[in-house]
Amino acid sequence: MSVFRDDFLWGGACAANQFEGAWDVDGKGDSVPDHCTNGSNTNPKRITEAFEEGTLYPSHEAIDFYHHYEGDIALFAEMGFKTFRTSINWTRIFPTGEEAEPNEKGLAFYDRVFDCCKKYGIEPLVTISHYELPYALVKKYNGWADRRLVDLYMNYCKTIFERYKDKVKYWLTFNEINAGTMRFGALLSLGTCQGYTGVGFEIPDDIQTRYQALHHQFVASAKAVIYAHEHYPQFKMGNMICYSAAYPLTCDPNDVMAAQQQMDNMNWYCSDVQCLGEYPYFAKRFWAEHGIQIHMEPGDKELLKKGTVDFYTFSYYMSTCVTTHADAETIGGNLLGGTKNPYLKASDWGWQIDPVGLRWSLNQIYARYHKPLMVVENGLGAYDEKGPDGKIHDSYRIDYLRSHIEQMAEAVKDGVDLMGYTPWGCIDLVSASTGEMAKRYGFIYVNKFDDGTGDLSRERKDSFYWYQKVIASNGADLS
């Protein structure tokens, strides 16, 4: 018997900039990802202000969902999806972010996508801004460093809210907003990379600019939530956090304190603002120790207090350890690496696999906020190779997902209000961190490769049929 609620939202997640392609089709403008080259686990992607001849920019075609959406959504429906988490490309609606009128062809595309979802009874879950800031706003304003982006974002929100008010109920204001607490977030999330050409992970760091830009995103998120609640009471507004479960490596009290501080700064700093409506108690000391001065305009505190989200969503892939001991072995991870946990195995990319950490995280989050939770990213990036029969037998992915769903069920039995689960990259797509296709997450294999070749045909993996069975049983049958 299933422990998940009857209306549990099983589905999958993708991002417009990582799977749509058609980067300059039907009036779309260029966004930050369109200026990012391909890369790999060992050769990091770069950002270039000018497009280099002979260089591959993977988002330009990606997997061309723009021209394949009907077939892809039909495959999602075949699996039994109740929801599909996707995002809107800001530059498809406002090519530079500053137009007086939206691009009708862009709006019409998402009408077709959402109508196709509805045809199959799939509820769209839409991220308003998912790492696709208009590049024109980087060049003119240095991205979110300039408060004028709040009004531009609100103009974008008002446009899509009104257009899709009868088609979309669930909205997330920013993807992994806490990426802004990290150096790489200047490129990925905040767009505070004006004039920078080079390796994304090596972007010069200006912590004052990052945290001020993050404040502007908080204000924008709050204003979007307030506007939605006042004009579209049927909407449910959520946040989205890149959740990093961090354990002390040892029982050294210094390790315990270091792990707590990482959890505070990485996880709670942003979600406290979005869920509780105010900066956390530890923020002032953090600002003082890092020379950060947050400029707030009159009314900002009231906006943050009023604009809290209805539900909390997050990505969970792995956990790390934290230590003050210099000789500890390190590992990579989703935006943030850490110290290796000797009790865990790791993926092909060195991300530690920790299903129990998901249960712990769900309990930690729910205890703090008492809001409905949703795991909107989770999954195993792996090298998928076809067997002698020409098919993908991804038992490793099934094992990963099964173990995490089992721990989600335990969290529900613990008393956590869990409303849905959308594994990441339900169809293979371009990696946000490395810009490669080889790091595959999907239930659906896409014939597209790191050199840009491939016929873009779609094939079901073994995990496709396994997840179909999971959804049909509402999570009861994980065999």
Automatic annotation (TrEMBL):
Coiled coil: none annotated. InterPro entries: GH (IPR017853), GH_1_N_CS (IPR033132), Glyco_hydro_1 (IPR001360). The keyword Hydrolase applies. Keywords: Glycosidase, Hydrolase. This is Family 1 glycosylhydrolase. The keyword Cytoplasm does not apply. SUPFAM superfamilies: (Trans)glycosidases (SSF51445). GO terms for molecular function: beta-glucosidase activity. Belongs to the glycosyl hydrolase 1 family. One of its GO terms (cellular component) is cytosol. It comes from the Bacteria. GO terms for biological process: carbohydrate catabolic process.
